[in-house]
Amino acid sequence: MNGLFISRDSCIRRSSDNAAQQKAAYRFLDNEKVTEQELIEVCCERTKVLCKDKHVLVLNDTSEINLQRHVGRLKPDEGVGLVGNNKDVGFFAHLGLVVDIEADQAIGYSSINLWHREMDKGTKPGRECNNLPIEGKESYKWIKCCNESKEVLKDAASITVVGDRESDIYELFIDAKSQGIEVLARNKADRKTEEGRKLYGILNGTEVCGSYKIEVLADKRKQRQKREAVLNVKFSEVHIKKPNGKKDERPAYVKAWIVEARENDKKDGICWRLLTTHSIENFEQAVQIVEWYQRRWFVEQVFRLLKNKGYRIENSELGTGWALRKLTVLLLQNVLRVIQMLIAYNGTSEKEDAGLVFTETEIECLTKLNIRNQGKTKKLRNPYNCHSLKWATWIIARLGGWSGYRSQRPPGPITLKNGLEKFNHVLMGWEMAKDVGTR
Questions:
Q1: In terms of domains, do 273 and 355 share one?
Q2: End residue of a domain, out of 227, 254, 283
Q3: Does one domain contain both 190 and 271?
Q4: pLDDT tens across 141-196, in order?
Q5: How many separate domains does the chain show?
Q6: 144, 161 in Cβ contact below 8 A?
Q7: Are residues 279 and 198 part of one domain?
Q8: What is the pTM for the complete model shown?
Q9: pLDDT tens digits for 28-49?
Q10: Residue 175 half-sphere exposure toward CB, CA atoms < 13 A
Q11: Which range of residues forms the domain containing residue 383?
């Protein structure tokens, strides 16, 4: 894992120091006695310990790992199948990233589910998907994540699962609440209520309870300029009616609250409609729900680091899908370290110690690098408390090519990953120099 962490990507050859290590890594991943489930359980074990008495969010999301470029190398029926376009080959990953609400920091994973579709799975109409119970659908992944998170986080003070529009599932609200878990999901459809009204009609008839400002960062990919947005907030208690056609024994309705945060003075501006089982009685609680939903961005960054310009799992040339899936679990633990730095830097607190991510030796090396990477002016000096995680992240970001000016866009996950790569090479040379000096 350390070799994977300092390597450029998921390539076993690059992460190995010699041929023996390389061969051992291949044997480990190909060994049938090393199961995917065992690796997942070990990955979640640390989360189980760290969640005790904490109020946590479980940030959910799904991504596909597309391996079509390696289709000629991959063995059929070896952990891979069709992905989203029903043509390419790969597998899917659904994660539950656990964040401590009060410390505003990632703890670990409470659920990791990897699966693949059958090559001859057929069409939705052919499989009569609409008539299947939720347990027989792929969307059951949201409930499965909830169930697994309940087991891993059983010592937590409270659990709130957070998902995008795809998680706006009636059964999830019912099943989670029955286990004492709260739900926060972005609304997907104008659902009917038990009283005969629809959600959007209820919102239209609800007064704005307050407004607040958020900073919208620039995004070249979306041709979006940096700006300050004013969001008007509404909320209302609703009783969502059980959708027609549901034949199970779940209740006829579920009590929830809907929150709307809308940027009314801009065409195509922000409009978040969120459903939650949390009780909302005032403006502050409604804003809290919106802010919790915004943290879902961090689980998206996990997948970005796993793929794209991060560890490039889709570039791996292992021969079986099962080995690739086990490699994915190992990489997710390394990605977590980058996410912890990213969250720390974007947060307002400096309470997190650098020891959460770095060893004592690494912090000693970072102290030396801090002197070297600071500029002569006040604007280019590390502004954070010495040995805090923010302080360490500032140094890693500078190594990754970030300018260092607080007026600039904060460092992103790829910049931090690149900085860690450079730092580990510097650390290796620094430790060698120390070793020579002490002989």
A1: no
A2: 283
A3: yes
A4: 999 999 999 999 999 999 999 999 999 999 999 999 999 999 999 999 999 999 89
A5: 2
A6: no
A7: yes
A8: 0.88
A9: 888 999 999 999 999 899 899 9
A10: 22
A11: 350-437
